[in-house]
Amino acid sequence: METKQGAARWRFPLTPTRCVLIALALLGLALSAYRLAAGLGAVTNLNDHWPWGLWIGFDVLTGVALAGGGYSTCLLVYVLNVAKFKSIARSALLTSLIGYLLVLFGLFMDIGRWFNFWRPFVSWGYHSVLFEVFWCISLYTLIQLLEFGHIATEKVGTAKLHRFFEKILPVLFIIGIVLPTLHQSSLGSLYLIEVGKLYPLWWSPFLPLFFLTSSFFVGPAMVMLETSLSGKVHHSTPEPQVYNGLIKVTGFMMVFYLLLKIYDLVSRGVLNLAFQNTLEGHMFLLEMLGGIIIPLLIFAVPAWRTSRTGQVVFSVLVTAGLILNRMNVVFTGMSRSLGGHYFPSFIEWAVSIGIVALGVLVYLFVVENFNILPQGRDVQQEKEGSTRAAA
Amino acid sequence: MAQGKAVLVDVTKCVGCESCSVACRLYNELPPEKTGAEKHELEAGQWTVVQAHTVDYKGEKVRRFVKNQCMHCLEPACASACFAKALQKTPEGPVVYNAKLCVGCRYCILACPFDIPKYEWDQVFPKISKCQMCLSRVAKNEMPACVSVCPTGALTFGDRDAMLKEAHKRIAQAPDLYANYVYGENEAGGTSWLYLTDVPFQQLGFNTGVVKKPLPGYTERVLRWTPGIAVGWGALLTGMYFYNRRRGEVEKEEQGKKKII
């Protein structure tokens, strides 16, 4: 009986999809090892015109923003105590943790002299935005690992350890909101020094505020996307009013974002650039229409907002809009001043896809083996209740 | 020498002999020039190049030669962007690179308004490659290797304020010859390399759109808020956390009382 329980303790059923994911992840990891041995120039299409490419643009800048669901949910559930979002809190924190681990992995792949990665910890270039980003992301990942310690010790480790995590949790939550607030905005500040290089539709003194706000409002959209996807697999979809509430949080933040954007463009006198027949103008309009204005229409019409389809379309558009925004800053907005050509190489794609596949696998494993989704938690609580009653 | 040393480049005096780039290669022990390099541009191991431009000027085709290298900004964006202090402005004037500290993030390449730093893409552990303005020579008050070999007097070395004065003196003495502009006087807040020319600068490949304010200020203005935001936001969150927790407890207690009643 004992041994049987031990074997059943960890489960990870292999489906065809998961086999594909495992293959992609293994390919990505193998190519990552090759990249570390061969150097950046040998495996990427980066060049002196385009020193930053897919790994920074997608894996890091977009990855951190998409992982923003962790801190925004943490703020809503644990600080503002909004009870109805509690059911999604753990999956949001988990996605965020995995997201940040992938970001750190991507960052490590991208630095040319990776044996020197620890230098900024001792050689303080405090005048650099990257310095703040580096410290905040490293510390925040540590904080999130400790937060996960609270969940993990429900299953492994001692009860004493669990109580320790329980005790320090409030501190972790508060630091775990302050740090992302700083570095989400700092990722925007990275491009402040590109004044004169980044196209004026995207360069703005408000860049940090734009990056912060959008990372906050994409959080709930990502949580909706991911819980409805994983809900299908794990038969645990949050109740409609949870999604309704999440859309409202995102919607109000997006109204603020849109107003600030219009004010910014008008006050700098560059709004007309959006309506010129240029690549930049088209991409900007696509980003604003698809990622902000159409989602806001769905938000504004109660019948759309409450329908399942409306909610899915909303979260897909908001997420895609954010990805497009970051891509526009890194690529579209810089192409005119950087010149030259860049398109990611096969290895760059394979590593990026591979680590996302790895992230999905880790998410699935943790969800199936720890108390993450609402249903699983109820089962656990019931069990605890019944054992307590029995005792 | 409050602003350190500087070099004044007088484009009207340059004949494109390339002595400067050869001297640079020898003094800094750079690898030999790649054969068959068609484009004459800065790249890894090529800290300076002389670019030839054929332009229409006052109704005739003229040839001008422009020496290209790091501008050594007074407030360099690259050094401000470096999060490991691998790039630093020295009091003598040169902006120098210390590979030992470099992580290889390439933010400096992106930050430079003149697109100067290049990367050793063919190396496993690439270094940044750019002109160091011969710091060891400049520190001894000797001119950089390139200046020391210039046969035509196109390059002049001295204190920056003296070089600026010299540039404006030349313009004043020959206003018909020179364009009335000293490139580098105000670009990116001022640079340690200054240029004089007769042909308008934009026809010679100069980026005339460079912001005139020092670039590090753009980020410093924002970074300055960081400690305040961290402390203030943290305090606000802590306050809200305890307030809402207490409110939750009170609600529970009241619900409990109602149940008892």
Automatic annotation (TrEMBL), chain A:
Q: Name one Pfam family in it.
A: NrfD
Q: List cellular component terms (GO).
A: plasma membrane
Q: Which domain of life is it from?
A: Bacteria
Q: Does the keyword Transmembrane apply?
A: yes
Would I find Phosphoprotein among this entry's keywords? no
Localisation per UniProt entry: Cell membrane
A biological process (GO) annotation for this entry? anaerobic respiration
Q: What is its main location?
A: membrane
Q: Which UniProt keywords apply?
A: Cell membrane, Membrane, Transmembrane, Transmembrane helix
Segments passing through the bilayer: 53-80, 92-112, 124-143, 164-182, 202-225, 245-263, 283-301, 313-334, 346-367
Q: How does it sit in the membrane?
A: Multi-pass membrane protein
The similarity annotation says: Belongs to the NrfD family.
Q: Which PANTHER family match?
A: FORMATE DEHYDROGENASE, NITRATE-INDUCIBLE, CYTOCHROME B556 FDN SUBUNIT, NI_FE-HYDROGENASE 2 B-TYPE CYTOCHROME SUBUNIT-RELATED
Name of the protein this chain belongs to: Hydrogenase
From TrEMBL, chain B:
Question: Where does the 4Fe-4S ferredoxin-type domain lie?
Answer: 5-35, 93-122
Pfam families xref list: Fer4_11
Q: Name the SUPFAM superfamilies on file.
A: 4Fe-4S ferredoxins
Coarse class of the primary localization is: other
Q: What are the entry keywords?
A: 4Fe-4S, Iron, Iron-sulfur, Membrane, Metal-binding, Repeat, Transmembrane, Transmembrane helix
Q: What Gene Ontology cellular-component terms does the record carry? A: cell envelope
Where in or outside the cell? Cell envelope
Molecular-function GO term, any one: metal ion binding
Locate the transmembrane regions by residue number.
222-243
The signal peptide here is: none
Annotated protein name in UniProt: (4Fe-4S)-binding protein
Tell me which species this is from: Desulfotomaculum copahuensis
